[in-house]
Amino acid sequence: MEKSAINKAKKIFLSIFSGLDRQLGLILLGLAAVGFITFLSASQNTPVRFEDELRNLALSFIVMWIVSRIPPKWLETAAVWIYGFGIALLIAVAIFGLIKKGARRWLNIGFVIQPSELMKIAMPLMLAWYFQKREGILKSWDYGVAAIILGIPVLLIARQPDLGTALLVFAAGMYVIILAGLPWKWILPFIGLGAFGIILIIIFGNTICAQDVVWPLVHNYQKHRVCTLLDPSSDPLGKGFHTIQSMIAIGSGGFFGKGWFQGTQSHLEFIPEKHTDFIFAVFSEEFGLLGNLVLLALFFALIKRGLAISASAPNLFTRLLGASVTLIFFTYAFVNIGMVSGLLPVVGVPLPFISYGGTALVTLGFGAGILMSIHRHRRLVQS
Amino acid sequence: MVSFKKPDLDSFQERIHIATWFVTLCFLLLVTRLVWLQLVSHSKYALLAENNRIAVVPAPANRGLLIDRNGIVIGRNYSALTLDVNAAEIKGNVDELIDDLSKIVLISPRDRRNFKRSLEDSRKMGTFPLRSMLTEAETARFMANRYRFPGVEIRARSFREYPYNELASHLIGYIGRVSQRDKERMQAEIETSKTDDPDALQASFLPGIQYVGKIGLEQSYENVLRGVPGYDQVEITAGGKPVRTLSSSPSIPGKNVVLSVDIKLQYLVEQLYGNYRGAFVAIEPATGDILAFVSKPNFNPNDFVEGIDSVTWKELNDSPQKPLYNRPLKGIYPPGSTYKPFMALAALEKKMRTPSQSISDPGYFEFGNHTFRDDKKGGHGIVDMQKSIVESCDTYYYLLARDMGVNMMHDFMKPFGFGQVTGIDLKGESKGILPSTEWKKNTFKKPEQQKWYEGETISLGIGQGYNAFTILQLAHGMANLANNGIVMKPHLVKAIEDPFTRNRTLTTPKESYRIDLAPENIEIIKKALLEVNISGTSASVFKGAGYQAGGKTGTAQVFSLNSKEYNHGATAEFLRDHALYVAIAPIDKPTIVLALVVENAGFGAQHAAPIARKALDFYLEGKWPKEIPEWKRAP
């Protein structure tokens, strides 16, 4: 009687975790643990409650679990609908959206949502669906169609204005397009042009950052961000202040770090948004280069695993989707660490599974769930 | 179904391969960067972290002044020496430090409480005042012992001061230390505002704000008065001690607010009330400028600036006189007979009466089995419209109300502003009650309560029944009448002044709308009002006035102003009638109208009209009553 109850419980327990990719699960658990440990230190003097962080982590896990149970076929069927729904929401935002801090990004439907967040998932879904449909009969003009599918939401989001999210959604789509086989002769010129542009900005930084030079297509504050990256001391009180301070925090951490809860820079309130976008500075200061190598190894393992899952996925849709989601994780991590360590301009990108924040965690959980689902259903489809 | 076409798979796996290399490269870049920061440059950053911690110290902006219409400053700032403690440098127990300090300077329990609260609110970052307004002796004593208290210093700080203390307290309001709730509200304001650079707004706005307007004009003009705090970027040592200022961005002082109020008139009226409670509003009808806005009794706003002590707070809060209650803004009273001129005008406009139509008044009016009495036993005899106003004949208006019905009255009175918010530049205005059948249906729950009874209409005619208005509404209504139906929004502030250039920007609202009234009808009413002060109920009060003023007395039965609280323990005094008075002067070209109530004072003619007379004497002729202490400019 009792034994059967235990067996039953064991069975239920196993069925809950069956199908969750063990490797991916352990990596994510590791990241979440790092995130939580750092969060405790970072939020020491802030009004953010750690119960909220726990709840967000749990929510993220639940979303991941649910999505991992959804067969990729369903996602494929729903792709167009999700994408269409996302576009509809973005148009609704443009018309009725709430304005906060000068940007129209939110929609009030009883509670406030940010539809551009949905697009981060909807975009790779839609494009992967499209390329799956055109598999084997792919023509050059298909990339034109893909560009339109990609361009509409990106422009809508860029207009809000939310350049950071627009770039991430753009990247998510571009990953699918490139992986689907966009010819190298089209890719390379852009890479060359980009590199050339970056070199130009670095060389002529002083000239184009002069006060009266107006950059086309970007807001004044966005120009400002690029310019303060080139020379953080030009704006010691604004964005430059953040970069200088987070660099001091990271640099002073040294090889072994100052120890958990021992970070002086981050605890003296020099680090802005230290439990969200700048949490890496807190971690770096307290756990040093050693900790950073562990963290980077975790991220690298996450991406390797994600790409491996994608490579062995059953069809083009799942392959493209899985790889794009994985590369988005990479982009988040790279852009965030790059920005906090002063390599990249300051844009609002969280560090995956480490930064505090419900929406991002849920989106990330969704992405991880997709990977798990692809992994889980690989055999089912093949056999 | 599943296709593993060879070329596709190869192409995809090839690209995955490239992606892996790309990712690896990027990670190597990050590792390089981190090695650069944490190994190669570690000593440099460690030094920076140890010795050159940079702190951003907010520099509060000077708050704008409050200035009356004649340039008298009624809200200002002064600088005083305070004992400041740098939270980062407190070693050990806070209470012990304060105990030690209190041997040198006086530190009250309230100072201690306030200081500890700021410490908690700020999460122990920054410098906070422990004791303000140090005396010279205290300053000297502290300087001699300074070495014993690292992190404690004397600094000059700016404080808000209301030089006339209680004067005009309800319209000025006060400022107080910013609370968490205030900050959340301001954050929400930022988020809904439009600007090019959200970050700049954020950075320049919240952290340096220490005080915020809590009520009155200090609250409603907060965004004008506050200015933008600046910052000093300060190098501090590991111990948090400031070494030098690296750069600073100056604060932008708040703008001055120029009131439409004549503060001398305000002072006079407040004195005239003596120990009576009540409300008084005077308006310049052509502009909507509020000339005086009195709520008695009042309180001293200076008590609130640095956090009010619990004894004073309890006294103010528990007093049956309700000194914190903004009577002209929130208190609702039945208008009593002051309503009659509006009723008469309605009768003319709606063609229900002609001026010469008369009634015979036996001293009462019977409706159903209820008798409505006139205040004069035996009645006023034959009463035409003018006489009905001059002698304040109730029976005339019982009949009129019955003939008009509640909804016709409602529709006529609404544009005058009765039972409507006037939109004055203060928060928390009461709407009052202008009854109609619709109103009753929406207000009550039970069906039998929702029904309008004919009998309820009768007493509306004499400004009783459900009628309940603020004194502000009554004054506004009079202003609209005086202004021949042109409605100006009443306001306490007429201009915003730049503190440097002294340039003034008018904020005076434009005409709201016009009530379509026949000029000859208005003339009839104004003539009757003039007659009230010549031969009517307030004739004796206005004898010998050097101008022609129209007026109307009123007496209202008490049941409003939070009657619930007065029901049981209240003394008989609180049950006496309220005395009301409204006036327009000069009657042919009005420059001032006023409405006032003296609570529980009895007859309007006896207690309310004399206040009006003296206020008008001063405003129109500059005469100052002998019994009132002279106005003195604040030092």
UniProtKB/TrEMBL annotation, chain A:
<dbReference type="GO" id="GO:0008955">
    <property type="term" value="F:peptidoglycan glycosyltransferase activity"/>
</dbReference>
<keyword id="KW-0573">Peptidoglycan synthesis</keyword>
<comment type="pathway">
    <text>Cell wall biogenesis; peptidoglycan biosynthesis.</text>
</comment>
<dbReference type="GO" id="GO:0008360">
    <property type="term" value="P:regulation of cell shape"/>
</dbReference>
<keyword id="KW-0472">Membrane</keyword>
<feature type="transmembrane region" description="Helical">
    <location>
        <begin position="278"/>
        <end position="303"/>
    </location>
</feature>
<dbReference type="GO" id="GO:0005886">
    <property type="term" value="C:plasma membrane"/>
</dbReference>
<feature type="transmembrane region" description="Helical">
    <location>
        <begin position="190"/>
        <end position="218"/>
    </location>
</feature>
<dbReference type="InterPro" id="IPR001182">
    <property type="entry name" value="FtsW/RodA"/>
</dbReference>
<feature type="transmembrane region" description="Helical">
    <location>
        <begin position="353"/>
        <end position="374"/>
    </location>
</feature>
<keyword id="KW-0961">Cell wall biogenesis/degradation</keyword>
<dbReference type="GO" id="GO:0015648">
    <property type="term" value="F:lipid-linked peptidoglycan transporter activity"/>
</dbReference>
<feature type="transmembrane region" description="Helical">
    <location>
        <begin position="324"/>
        <end position="347"/>
    </location>
</feature>
<feature type="transmembrane region" description="Helical">
    <location>
        <begin position="141"/>
        <end position="158"/>
    </location>
</feature>
<keyword id="KW-0997">Cell inner membrane</keyword>
<dbReference type="InterPro" id="IPR011923">
    <property type="entry name" value="RodA/MrdB"/>
</dbReference>
<keyword id="KW-1003">Cell membrane</keyword>
<dbReference type="InterPro" id="IPR018365">
    <property type="entry name" value="Cell_cycle_FtsW-rel_CS"/>
</dbReference>
<dbReference type="Pfam" id="PF01098">
    <property type="entry name" value="FTSW_RODA_SPOVE"/>
</dbReference>
<keyword id="KW-0808">Transferase</keyword>
<dbReference type="GO" id="GO:0071555">
    <property type="term" value="P:cell wall organization"/>
</dbReference>
<comment type="function">
    <text>Peptidoglycan polymerase that is essential for cell wall elongation.</text>
</comment>
From TrEMBL, chain B:
<dbReference type="GO" id="GO:0009002">
    <property type="term" value="F:serine-type D-Ala-D-Ala carboxypeptidase activity"/>
</dbReference>
<feature type="binding site">
    <location>
        <position position="374"/>
    </location>
    <ligand>
        <name>Zn(2+)</name>
    </ligand>
</feature>
<feature type="binding site">
    <location>
        <position position="393"/>
    </location>
    <ligand>
        <name>Zn(2+)</name>
    </ligand>
</feature>
<feature type="domain" description="Penicillin-binding protein dimerisation">
    <location>
        <begin position="59"/>
        <end position="246"/>
    </location>
</feature>
<dbReference type="InterPro" id="IPR036138">
    <property type="entry name" value="PBP_dimer_sf"/>
</dbReference>
<dbReference type="GO" id="GO:0009252">
    <property type="term" value="P:peptidoglycan biosynthetic process"/>
</dbReference>
<dbReference type="GO" id="GO:0008270">
    <property type="term" value="F:zinc ion binding"/>
</dbReference>
<dbReference type="GO" id="GO:0008658">
    <property type="term" value="F:penicillin binding"/>
</dbReference>
<keyword id="KW-0645">Protease</keyword>
<dbReference type="GO" id="GO:0071555">
    <property type="term" value="P:cell wall organization"/>
</dbReference>
<keyword id="KW-0961">Cell wall biogenesis/degradation</keyword>
<dbReference type="GO" id="GO:0005886">
    <property type="term" value="C:plasma membrane"/>
</dbReference>
<comment type="similarity">
    <text>Belongs to the transpeptidase family. MrdA subfamily.</text>
</comment>
<dbReference type="GO" id="GO:0006508">
    <property type="term" value="P:proteolysis"/>
</dbReference>
<comment type="pathway">
    <text>Cell wall biogenesis; peptidoglycan biosynthesis.</text>
</comment>
<dbReference type="Pfam" id="PF03717">
    <property type="entry name" value="PBP_dimer"/>
</dbReference>
<keyword id="KW-0472">Membrane</keyword>
<feature type="transmembrane region" description="Helical">
    <location>
        <begin position="21"/>
        <end position="39"/>
    </location>
</feature>
<feature type="domain" description="Penicillin-binding protein transpeptidase">
    <location>
        <begin position="278"/>
        <end position="616"/>
    </location>
</feature>
<dbReference type="InterPro" id="IPR005311">
    <property type="entry name" value="PBP_dimer"/>
</dbReference>
<comment type="function">
    <text>Catalyzes cross-linking of the peptidoglycan cell wall.</text>
</comment>
<dbReference type="GO" id="GO:0008360">
    <property type="term" value="P:regulation of cell shape"/>
</dbReference>
